[in-house]
Write a structure and sequence with these properties.
The structure is a homodimer. Chain A has about 425 residues and is an alpha/beta fold. Chain A is built from eleven helices and 17 strands. In chain A, strand 1 and strand 2 form a beta hairpin.
Chain lengths: ~425, ~425
């Protein structure tokens, strides 16, 4: 019998440092946006590390990268573990990379002791999780689950240099094609497990090292538009004003006081606001904003969306301006596999980890994989909940603890 | 004894039509921005009309145009009457043009009956009142009153084609220079009188044809900035948010409910609002806006400005975000000459006009002339108070009534 596999914390942290050098920014973060030169360098390094350990490497038509360890029965669908290596333009060094390198560390730790899993294990690097260079996000995971690349993505242009998604995708695939084999999209998967930084402050503030993620909250994006009458700031008295920004701010002020204070699990965010014509001395003609609304429960989302419409419409009526609201995104809440979650809880208990069950507030590739295979996630704390920011930071001991938990979970899933 | 001068309403309306053709826009307005080809065409037409009546024509270094009728004593400072001919990019046909052409109609009506005034009368066309192509507005009137062109204007670039103020100013002067004489900036003036459309709805709604303007309200421009902490919309619960837009909208909502409702003469306008980074799914890092605050009384302006600072600071404190406010414009209220205002009231009474005394909400060239000579203004109603808009409209009978009132006022001022 071989000895038990163990995480090599030093190796994991060294790998994190090595990947953080690719696309490193002066502020200590990374700019390694999807399908750029930096992203390709990261894929090349990942491939080189895999080949050095004699793992086989594949990529599919979405440029998703797979690193495979064979199992006792190679015909069984693999256990899939991983995350992404692309980043925001001024992103942190842990978002995506920590999950990918933790999965690879697990593979190496198994190889270190010549562990033979019951089924194949594959580390996956999903393409374009962030969605900031090419929308939408999670392109690789979406295409994998759909089994094809949606036609409408072909002409999508990059926000930075204007190049086409299709060209950058093919160039990325071709850069590695001589060294690695092709794989079809959407092959069967036994289960999917992803580790990620929380990107929120709850684990850190509760001093809990591991979150077991039981699902992803639902998200709706709304576009709100008020239309009034532009007029001269100096000459138009109150009775003649039809000010759409007054309606918008009054309506938003009311919503800020009700939505989140009354529903602890709700998230209500106005990330964009604008007026036209945007002149210091003109009452605006239009005022608009976006609303990002989230909650784990579809029923509550429906109720909140109705509340928002009602309150904003009332503000519009008071100011005698017209009002419209349009839903641009409606992602239903996802509940992860109860079996996988239970397995993680067992693994945590056995390994002695203090955990918290939690809902993910952010999208992840796992949200899409949940439609393809039994799926769950593990979160580790990050400082001040800060992410999508060069100051993103995870304590070394938390990264290593997460890897221990991930290894224990993989072993439990393989039983 | 000559017969009494009389306004020729048909002639005035025909002149308005002729000038509305210069820079006419498809929407029925004009685009005759300062020192453009259209502006030069308007000056050329004005000059041709003046020469056809044997008036002498001058221009100064600011390209202000003067059309002079001699008086009994040519050494006395002239009575100055006029307005401007430049427009907003999608401006109306009455803003500026009505006052200029009314002043010229008065000059023609006097010439029709060979009326000899006690002192010279000059019609002035001020350069760049609007300030939209080259900031600031009222450049011609400012330079006239200062007696020189401020050095800092020389390099100012046009917002449309990027050409320099100084080059366009000289080209405009040179285009007319062969035909007309030069005049120094800031010569002595007996009194200044300007007719303008109200650019607000109060005369129209009260069905009063003439406003006697006793002053211009004070204006302050404030720039407000809240700085919080950007964070993920989905993962950050209420207790961890430091949302600057929540602070801004809450603060503004409170101000909308107090400033204007409590002070009938106050004007409170937020014309610009912005957040960074401006991402649908990110709590903003910063939220900013402009405030345009007006009132005829400096004491009340001081009080309101303090109130605004206090209320916004309180909102910032509640949301744990930082707050700053900066004053970028502070134009004190101006009170026009009591003598000129009394003379206008006498003229109105004699001529049988129903008038209203009022404060101008907008800037005008007269605001600057008030620092140089006894000054007042006459307002005529415009439809729905609409101005800076192609739909700007003045009823023909209101234009003609305004000209009658203007002639009566000029005759009274000459007594």
């Amino acid at each position: 019998m071989t000895s038990l596999p163990e995480i090599d914390g030093e190796r994991l942290l060294a790998r994190l440092d090595a990947f953080a050098e690719i696309g490193a920014t002066p502020g200590g973060g990374v700019n390694r946006q999807a399908l750029t030169r930096g992203d390709r360098q990261a894929r090349a390094l990942m491939t080189a590390l895999a080949k050095a350990r004699d793992f086989s490497v594949f990529q599919d038509d979405a440029a998703n990268l797979f690193i495979r360890m064979e199992g006792r029965d190679s015909d069984l669908p693999p256990l899939l573990i991983g995350s992404h290596l692309d980043s925001q333009p001024t992103g942190g060094r842990f978002d995506g990379a920590l999950g990918t390198l933790t999965a690879f560390e697990v593979l190496e730790s198994l190889a270190d002791v010549a562990f033979e899993p019951t089924r194949p294990i594959e580390v996956v690097v999903w393409t374009n999780e962030e969605g900031c260079r090419f929308a939408p996000g999670c392109m690789g995971a979406r295409a994998f689950v759909e089994g094809k690349i949606p036609l409408e993505w072909a002409g999508t242009r990059a926000t930075d240099d204007g190049s086409r998604f299709n060209e950058d995708r093919l160039a990325t695939i071709e850069a590695l094609a001589p060294e690695i084999d092709h794989r079809r999209l959407g092959f069967p998967v036994a289960a999917y497990l992803e580790l990620h930084i929380e990107q929120g402050p709850s684990l850190e503030s509760a001093e809990i090292p591991v979150g077991i993620v039981t699902g992803v909250q639902g998200t709706r994006w709304l576009e709100v538009l008020f239309e009034g009458q532009t007029a001269h700031a100096g000459t138009t008295s109150l009775q003649f004003r039809r000010d759409p920004l007054k309606a918008l701010t009054t309506g938003l002020a009311a919503l800020y006081e009700t939505v989140m204070p009354e529903k602890a699990d709700a998230r209500f965010t106005v990330g964009r606001i604008a007026v036209t014509p945007g002149s210091v001395n003109a009452i605006p003609a239009t005022a608009s904003c976006t609303i990002d609304l989230r909650h784990p429960d579809t029923f509550v989302l429906d109720m909140l969306e109705e509340d928002i419409g009602t309150q904003l419409a009332a503000a519009a009526e008071t100011e005698r301006v017209s009002f419209s609201i349009r839903k641009t995104v409606d992602m239903a809440p996802v509940t992860f596999s109860e079996d996988v979650v239970a397995t993680l809880q067992t693994a945590a208990k056995t390994a002695g980890f203090n955990t918290r069950s939690m809902i993910s507030g952010a999208f992840h590739d796992a949200l899409f994989l949940a439609g393809h295979a039994p799926t769950a996630m593990i979160f580790v704390p990050c400082r001040d909940g800060l992410s999508h920011n060069e100051g993103e930071y995870v304590k070394p001991e938390d990264s290593v603890a997460g890897a221990h938990m991930f290894l224990a979970s993989v072993l439990e899933l393989l039983r």
